Fold this sequence. Notes:
The chain has 62 residues and is mainly beta. It is built from no helices and five strands.
Amino acid sequence: MCLAKVLVEKNEEESVFAGNVSDIRIEGNIIVLTDILGEEYKVAGTLISADLVHGEVRIKAS
């Protein structure tokens, strides 16, 4: 299983938004993240990168 830490960039600052993310879905301009416990997190923005080897996903918030 590949789990990821999700970093969100807003106003040129980057912070951890969610951890242990196992699923990522795109619903229009909303990115829906689900962690291993089934908790959903939503953020409006665009996907910048997904580094699955290092378990990092970067999103630019809109």
